[in-house]
Amino acid sequence: MNRDCFSTYMSPLGQMTMASDGQNLTGLWFDGQKHFGSTLTFHSVQAADVPLFGDVRRWLDIYFSGRNPGFMPPVRLRSSDFQMLVWRLLLSIPYAATTTYGALARTVAQERGVERMSAQAVAGAVARNPISLIIPCHRVIASDGSLAGYAGGLQRKEWLLTLEQTMGDRFEKTIRF
Question: What is the value of pTM for the model shown?
Fold first, then answer.
């Protein structure tokens, strides 16, 4: 399939839109979230139900039932080397764990061979993640433990983190890179 296509999924947190190039997932957003549709080329988009969307729906069904899906649908990301590095690091955050923007910034600095990296620059890359949930940008919190920033909204972020964690353990599983 040469044209980008999209379909929708009704989550407990509202409708989501998924985008594909026909083989790979290229976007997954809560409708109306910041940076919604950032990977779509609107002049070539069509509604379709490619087989991949069945896998994405299955992943989302498992996730929203409170379990770790244990698999990842094929994704295709296109962006700057910096954003790709940040998104790769997001994929290393385990289910039901969190990390901080500062910890991510330190790891990015190490991997890029620089002394320091701005946590704000990392937060900007996290916010532009085009594949919500599957690339778990919601697992990144502020260094003081607050829920700072989420393109899908802070109420959704809190709901997602609570879903992933058992009551009483909220935000205690923090990883350091």
Answer: 0.86
